[in-house]
Specification:
The complex is a heterodimer of chains A (496) and B (80). Chain A is an all-alpha fold. Chain A has 20 helices and two strands. Helix content of chain A is 74%, strand content 1%. In chain A, strands 1-2 form a two-stranded antiparallel sheet. The termini of chain A are far apart. The chains are: A mainly alpha (496), B mainly alpha (80). Chains A and B meet through helix 9, helix 16 and helix 17 of A and helix 1, helix 2 and helix 3 of B.
Chain lengths: 496, 80
């Protein structure tokens, strides 16, 4: 009980509250603007947290996460363009509602649903986290290796339509992380003889280059196109509780969908929101109303995509396996602040975990307040020209890359990664698995080599553990299923 | 477009090392807005670029305590 009270005190300290608030507002704003994803917000906020202690730093990151998952609905409703991919399903009925003059109701409903989904998954997470960690504490390096391998294979395999491209991306991420001095023997790898490369690639530098820079280029390229039309109703900050009567069951079911989807590594917000929308329509008493401005079509996807958050945190915190790309970035952030997510985290840093729970709850309160008090400001933000923001973001990229290790070389590296990210985009290789390779690479290698040291060089250690075998089997199943379904797909189109 | 951005980035980093954060960033922003995006409102661009660069310096260097490149030739604000 002591720990809990301490955590509550820690999480509500003024500095931490401020960090959470700033994070939530940043997340909301960035994800509300189409063309800026909240993954970018997470990446660019990280340099701000370098000088902070772990708890405020994590509070800020989670604030961004909560705000980011919620804000996408704003532009989905007002412009008809999702602010982030997770809000894509919200457009169908949200924009329709706006055109009927119900934009405020849609926005208010989406925030309530988002908070509901987020809190629901938080409770689930709180209940399950310790059980899973208790199980995982008995994992040795061989088991953790198999687990990390499974996590990598699911994101590479399940998240992207092309298995091959996903794996290329994941392996690329792994390769990038081998640059530098080898941790165990100090051997230089891929350093090309330069001193600077010996320090390896800083995860954040690569992330900034791969995620943010291509986005900036795309925004620049889109400059000059006509600005999208924003619904001009006088938007008020409502919390339309009465309109939601009868929808609480739907919200609960949508939250369950979201939590489960989030917990499965490799699937995330977009999938959850579409599944929830589909479910809502199927089980509704008037399915034909969907698409015309039915409030259930806003409430279900929004509850689901926010429930993904708690769900994704379950494997991330207890096992160190991120549930979706955004959680992978947060994982990177935790690593940078010296916290190693995984079963040990609950032993050594339980205070951080509890403080995290409280932080997430606080961020939802902040978001609800912002919605009520600040929604009009929001709408103004949508009108800021995107290219101006893009220039500012370019500067923040430079700052972020430099701040990681006080190294000008890192800023060059960021530019190189930016080029890489741009090229990957052109050949349609997805970037998210690269990030996953970056974040999980060191752990994968370390566990592998530690296992071999323990077994004195014998690979039998991987086959002796039942848990490890289970995860290897799951990995094979994921890969096999992907291969099978793509072969089937090709046969089908050949016959068609 | 992409080529221009990368060229600009490389030049930015080169300048960053020599002239320090504020000067290089202001230059980058002006260049990006006028050359790449072809915005002609010179006064607006100049004010925006300088204000943002100084603002970042204040927020990061002074408020957050995260050092930004001071520059080896021209050290603007190094002693501050």
């Amino acid at each position: 009980m002591d720990v809990v009270l301490q955590a509550i005190a820690a999480a509500t300290a003024p500095g931490v509250l401020a960090a959470t608030t700033v994070g939530a507002i940043t997340g909301l704003l960035v994800s509300a603007i189409p063309g800026l994803t909240f993954s970018m917000a997470l990446i660019l906020v990280m340099p701000f947290t370098f000088a902070m202690d772990p708890i405020p730093a994590i509070a800020m990151l989670f604030g961004v996460y909560s705000g980011g998952m919620t804000g996408g609905a704003v532009s989905a409703v007002l412009i008809g363009i999702p602010g982030t991919p997770s809000a894509a399903a919200t457009v169908f009925d949200g924009y329709a509602m706006a055109r009927k003059g119900e934009a405020s109701v849609a926005l208010g409903a989406s925030v309530i649903a988002s908070a509901f989904g987020g809190l629901f998954s938080l409770v689930v997470m709180m209940l399950l986290l310790e059980q899973i960690a208790a199980l995982a504490i008995r994992f040795g390096p061989a088991e953790i290796f198999a687990l990390v391998l499974f996590g990598l294979s699911t994101i590479c395999g399940l998240a992207e339509r092309s298995l091959v491209r996903g794996f290329v991306a994941g392996v690329l991420g792994l390769m990038i992380m081998t640059i530098g001095l080898d941790e165990i023997d100090g051997v230089g790898r891929l350093t090309f003889g330069t001193v600077q490369l010996q320090q390896g690639v800083h995860m954040l530098v690569a992330m900034i280059g791969l995620f943010a820079v291509p986005q900036v280029i795309e925004t620049f390229a889109g400059h000059g196109r006509p600005a999208p039309e924003i619904v001009t109703e006088d938007v008020r900050g409502l919390l339309p509780w009465s309109r939601l009567r009868g929808y609480w069951g739907l919200m609960t079911r949508a939250s369950i969908i979201g939590t489960i989807v989030g917990a499965v590594p490799g699937t995330g917000g977009p999938i959850a929101s579409f599944l929830a929308y589909d479910h809502a329509r199927r089980f509704s008493r008037h399915p034909e109303a969907y698409g015309q401005g039915e409030i259930g079509g806003v409430v279900a996807p929004e509850a689901a995509n926010n429930a993904v958050m708690g769900g994704a945190l379950i494997p991330m915190l207890s096992l160190g396996i991120p549930g979706d790309p955004a959680t992978a970035i947060i994982l990177g952030g935790l690593l940078i602040h010296g916290l190693q997510p995984g079963p040990l985290l609950l032993q050594t840093n339980l205070d951080v975990i509890y403080a995290l729970y409280v932080t997430v709850m606080v961020s939802w309160i902040v978001i609800l307040l912002v919605q009520v008090a600040g929604i009009r400001l929001f709408v103004k933000v949508l009108k800021v020209p995107a290219h101006l923001l893009a220039v500012c973001i370019l500067v923040l990229c430079g700052i972020g890359a430099y701040a990681a290790r006080n190294s000008i070389f890192d800023v060059y590296a960021m530019a190189v990664f930016g080029l890489l990210g741009y090229l990957l985009q052109r050949v349609r290789i997805p970037v998210a698995p690269v990030v996953l390779g970056l974040v999980l690479g060191p752990a994968l290698e370390q566990q592998y080599r530690t296992a071999l040291i323990l077994s004195e060089g014998s690979h039998a250690i991987f086959l002796e553990s039942p848990f490890a075998l289970v995860f290897f089997a799951l990995t094979a199943a994921v890969v096999g299923w992907q291969i099978w379904s793509s072969v089937r797909g090709r046969k089908g189109s050949a016959e068609a | 477009m992409a080529g221009a951005v990368f060229a600009l980035l490389v030049l930015y980093v080169l300048l960053l090392d020599k002239a320090g954060f504020v000067i290089s960033t202001a230059a980058l922003m002006v260049a990006a807005l006028t050359v790449v995006l072809r915005i002609r409102r010179w006064l607006f661009v100049a004010v925006f670029a300088v204000a943002f660069s100084i603002g970042c310096w204040v927020v990061f260097n002074s408020l957050l305590g995260i050092p930004l490149p001071p520059g080896t030739w021209i050290a603007a604000g190094e002693t501050r």
